[in-house]
Write a structure and sequence with these properties.
Strand 4 and strand 5 form a beta hairpin. The protein has nine helices and eight strands. Helices cover 29% and strands 13% of the residues. The structure holds cobalamin (B12).
């Protein structure tokens, strides 16, 4: 099993399903969970690129590579197919992001990182610049002691958050700039100003950029991320295949207009 998972992801661990079963996220994908789910094999995919890729960028770091969902799903699908062949009789179901699994919590229980006050998983080697995905199985797998570990609570993310959205390690979504850039419809003047002054029209990295546990984070070795890097969104480039494509052009164009108003 180790070789199969090592080929898929540079960092993974096991979270017993029972430890997150009361925190499942309601979504359509929930119906795909194996009936007798026993273990969550949680995997992390580092995405930090060389600084040169972020120069003059107007989108958050996670959206510089092409949409990560198909990239990590392809890797996990391959691993799941190999696991099904090796362990017939067990189910292996792949999820990424659009998942009933509270991924940050599961990853911390699996021992692959600490939960930051910004609510993100921070790994020792790659900091919080990792995407999470998982294979849920009805196979019982040995896990660690399953304790959630917390960050050093220096308070820098809380202080730097432009919307003051971080309250005691919980995110108030309505105030989170990442959420605001994704919101459809009419924004309040305050929300518009947050987008104008951030210089970022999709997502937000502020709580990650100020985190001391992120300094010196290793760059990704996943070639699919580097090969597809594109650090600006603009009105003329098609959005297909980018991390923000699911939201549709209207929201992107609105945010681009807000940036223009500032210039
Ligand atoms: C909805 C969502 C959002 C929403 C709301 C985020 C939020 N923090 O509530 C919005 C749109 C704002 C968002 C933004 C971002 N997101 Co998001 N998001 C999700 C999603 C789909 C679900 C999260 C969720 O609802 N969790 C369940 C809720 C109910 O969790 P919760 O009970 O509140 O528990 C949280 C805390 O309380 C804490 N916690 C829980 N138990 C305990 C116990 C203890 C002791 C402690 C200390 C803490 C703690 O951990 C949980 C962290 O999520 C996940 C994918 C997934 N399936 O998990 C991605 C995910 C969390 N997002 C991700 C990313 C990359 C981002 C952004 C960085 C993108 C960007 N650059 O703009 C920002 C970061 C903003 C931030 N600081 O959270 C990654 C995070 C990777 C990582 N290293 O952790 C995930 C895992 C997606 C992925 N597959 O990689 N996101």
């Amino acid at each position: 099993m180790k070789e199969i998972l090592d080929r898929a992801s540079p960092l993974w661990g096991i979270c017993p399903f029972v430890k997150i079963k009361d925190n499942l996220i309601e979504c359509r994908a929930k119906s795909r969970l194996p009936v007798n789910s026993r273990s969550v094999i949680i995997t992390a995919f580092p995405y930090l690129l060389d600084e040169k890729y972020y120069k003059d960028s107007n989108i958050s770091k996670y959206s510089v590579p092409a949409d990560y969902h198909p990239i990590i799903t392809a890797r996990l699908d391959k691993a799941a197919a190999e696991l099904r062949e090796k362990y017939p009789g067990y189910e292996f179901e792949v999820f990424a992001d659009n998942s009933p699994i509270p991924e940050v919590r599961a990853a911390s229980i699996a021992g692959i990182g600490v939960i930051g006050s910004n609510s993100l998983l921070i790994t020792e080697r790659y900091g919080s610049f990792v995407f999470l995905g998982e294979i849920v199985t009805d196979m019982p797998l040995a896990a660690g002691n399953g304790e959630i570990k917390e960050c050093i609570k220096c308070g820098r993310c809380t202080a730097a958050c432009p919307g003051s959205a971080i309250i005691n390690g919980k995110i108030d979504r309505e105030k989170c700039l990442s959420h605001i850039t994704q919101k459809k419809g009419i924004l309040t003047e305050e929300e518009k100003n947050m987008i104008r002054s951030s210089g970022c029209i999709w997502g937000c990295d502020i709580c990650q950029n100020v985190c001391p546990l992120n300094s010196g984070a290793d760059l990704t070795q996943i070639k699919e991320f580097e090969e597809t890097a594109k650090n600006r969104a603009d009105a003329d480039t098609p959005i297909e295949g980018r991390a923000y494509a699911w939201r549709g052009e209207k929201v992107i164009r609105r945010n681009l207009e807000l940036q223009k108003e500032k210039e």
